[in-house]
């Protein structure tokens, strides 16, 4: 099932094969010890972080010289889910940046990098040096995870940060909503 959050598809097709680094049964603690990473993947890029409020996000984007943030013109409201989307153009290394907020806090940050001046290998090796080997690796993405954070480098070159706690809650709410809609549909059909 593909779960679509406004602009960012967040699941892979079943046909994509995933290669796991290390044992499937290796716990996150063992993974952290084996890579020397005691804190897990980052929740922050520069002054932008998962969990920050919309006003703080707007302020940080205005101050950061990597972004051409135009203020409220770059902010959209997604009424179906009562979420906010901030989409802005970047300068130099960043082509576009997307921030999705739920409950007033950022839970997804996605940075599409300019492949004319930045390459996948450089980003990947930087992550490996700082955070150890990825938890999973496939031709389409490398993933680092902790209990509350998922960071991926996706091809051609996008770095995505996800707050897993919020994301998992939204997935469960979506499943509940689908079940409820199916039940209502069946009840309606039984009225005939």
Would you write up a description of this structure?
The model is unreliable at 1-38 (pLDDT under 50). The longest helix has 27 residues, at 164-190. This protein is of the alpha+beta class and 192 residues long. The chain has one domain. A nine-stranded antiparallel beta sheet has the order 3-10-11-12-13-9-8-7-6. Strands 1-2 form a two-stranded antiparallel sheet. Strands 4-5 form a two-stranded antiparallel ribbon. The chain is 30% helix and 30% strand. A hairpin with a 3-residue loop joins strand 10 (136-137) and strand 11 (141-145). It has helices at 28-35, 54-63, 120-131, 164-190; strands at residues 4-5, 8-9, 19-20, 44-45, 48-49, 75-78, 83-89, 94-102, 105-113, 136-137, 141-145, 149-154, 158-163. The protein has four helices and 13 strands.
């Amino acid at each position: 099932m593909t779960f679509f959050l406004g602009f960012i598809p967040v699941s892979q097709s079943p046909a994509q094969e995933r290669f796991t680094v290390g044992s499937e049964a290796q716990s996150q603690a063992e993974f952290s010890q084996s890579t020397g990473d005691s804190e897990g993947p980052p929740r922050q890029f520069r002054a932008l972080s998962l969990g920050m409020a919309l006003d703080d996000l707007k302020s940080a984007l205005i101050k950061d010289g990597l972004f051409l943030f135009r203020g409220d013109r770059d902010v959209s409201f997604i009424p179906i889910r009562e979420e906010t989307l901030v989409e802005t153009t970047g300068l130099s290394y960043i082509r576009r940046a997307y921030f999705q907020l739920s409950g007033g806090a950022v839970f997804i940050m996605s940075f599409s990098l300019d492949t004319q001046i930045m390459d996948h290998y450089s980003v990947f090796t930087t992550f490996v040096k700082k955070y150890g080997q990825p938890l999973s690796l496939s031709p389409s993405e490398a993933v680092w995870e902790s209990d509350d954070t998922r960071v991926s480098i996706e091809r051609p070159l996008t770095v995505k940060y996800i707050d897993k706690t919020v994301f998992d809650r939204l997935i469960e709410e979506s499943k509940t909503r689908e079940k409820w809609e199916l039940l209502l549909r069946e009840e309606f059909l039984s009225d005939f």
